[in-house]
Amino acid sequence: MGLHPNIQLSAARWLFDNVRFNVESPHDDWEFALRLSKQAEASIDTVPEVLVVLYFEEERLSLTTRTSSWSASLRWLEGIRPILTRRAYSGFCLGAVGSRAAREEAYKAFPELLHRAFRNGSPELWQVLPFLAYWLTPQKFRGLLRGMLRGRPGPRSA
Fold first, then answer.
1. pTM to 2 decimals?
2. What is the pLDDT of residues 109-129, one digit of tens each?
3. Would you tell me which of 2, 16, 45, 121 could form a disulfide with 89, CB atoms 3.0–4.6 Å apart?
4. Which pairs from 64-67 meet CB under 8 Å and 24+ separation?
């Protein structure tokens, strides 16, 4: 999907000195990577191997989910919209913000996020389908389905 929620950054020290983390941001790692790319014109390279597998349906709270909400993520997204492509905007709106809103059972967010994704972004089918799945399928069912597709009987317990 192009969404990299766990970013491991290695860069020259002068980049970190010139472009600082915004610790007030609900998405400080993504914002930092975007600002490195846009402000410092740094190249962001990725490795082809999967280094981390992230299961959104697991009921574990991260620091971000404990301190932030879907609406804070949407405000952040609107604030950085000028430096995003339309496709990136719709991807983050439907993927990251949409999944968080569904998890929070914030039903009023469904039409708002869909509207914003089409008005300010350029969503593709592969962005819209998971968004709909977040809202139309129970979280535990998504975990079971993912486990079956990967050859496991269901979500792993910690």
1. 0.69
2. 999 999 999 999 999 999 999
3. 121
4. 64/26, 64/27, 65/100, 65/103, 67/26
